[in-house]
Design a protein that fits this description.
The complex is a heterodimer of chains A (111) and B (116).
Chain A: E1 10-14, E2 19-24, E3 32-38, E4 45-51, E5 56-58, E6 62-67, E7 72-77, E8 86-93, E9 100-101, E10 105-110
Chain B: E1 5-7, E2 10-13, E3 19-24, E4 31-37, E5 44-50, E6 53-57, E7 65-68, E8 75-79, E9 88-95, E10 106-107, E11 111-115
Parallel strand pairs in B: 2-11
Antiparallel strand pairs in B: 1-3, 3-8, 4-5, 4-9, 5-6, 7-8, 9-10, 9-11
The chains are: A mainly beta (111), B mainly beta (116).
Chain lengths: 111, 116
């Protein structure tokens, strides 16, 4: 199938290592953020979300960090696995009815 | 109900032709969204329905684009007089409420449109 994002920034990590994917968001009024994973030929899949009244939220093997001062969001994936290979997008919401997505990062996991 | 379904998965059309895509949301979701995604970019919002009412449209939705959700269930997105710049993945999503709970905002697998 056709790949999502042939010209995206790419992060290449060794299987088992931790991955950190960064995102700069644009709207200082945004108060809700989501990380999505998108595999080739599929729609975005929810990973984890965070509200602006929090700095950190943890899920299973994933952690999201929010720095509102510099409008920066990061996704940390622990013990990265080959199945984590995909394109990752951050999305922001500012109480409207739509999500605004960032440009995406391709994660490649080397076995 | 296995999620948001989109049909067709792929569509190749000649420039100038009209195309129509269908989205079947999760049955209990009253909100339905259309996004467009071009290669290398994140999805961009096009329009949103609550039940059968189209409540918001992006400036990306030109006059050649029209979306309907006649019975508040499935939705169609029609593009008239297609142009090569319309080539993209068209994604549908549905939710119960505004996107404040990410795991309740579900995307379909999209329709890949290629205009030749």
């Amino acid at each position: 199938g056709e790949s999502v994002g042939l010209h995206l920034p790419t992060l290449s990590v060794q299987e088992g290592d931790n991955s950190i994917i960064n995102c700069a968001y644009s709207n200082s009024a945004s108060d809700y953020f989501i990380w999505y994973k998108q595999e080739s030929g599929k729609g975005p899949q929810f990973i984890i979300d965070i509200r602006s009244n929090m700095d950190k939220r943890q899920g299973q093997r994933v952690t999201v960090l929010l720095n509102k001062t510099v409008k920066h969001l990061s996704l940390q994936i622990a013990a990265t696995q080959p199945g984590d290979s995909a394109v990752y997008f951050c999305a922001e919401n500012n109480a409207g009815n739509m999500l605004t997505f960032g440009g995406g990062t391709r994660l490649m996991v080397k076995p | 109900d296995t999620g948001v379904s989109q049909d067709p998965r792929h569509k190749i059309t000649k420039r100038g032709q009209n195309v129509t895509f269908r989205c079947d949301p999760i049955s209990e979701h009253n909100r339905l969204y259309w996004y467009r995604q071009t290669l290398g970019q994140g999805p961009e919002f096009l329009t949103y329905f609550q039940n059968e009412a189209q409540l918001e449209k992006s400036r990306l939705l030109s006059d050649r684009f029209s979306a309907e959700r006649p019975k508040g269930s499935f939705s169609t997105l029609e593009i008239q007089r297609t142009e090569q710049g319309d080539s993209a993945m068209y994604l549908c999503a549905s939710s119960l409420a505004r996107p404040r709970q990410g795991n309740g905002y579900t995307f379909g697998s999209g329709t890949r449109l290629t205009v030749v």
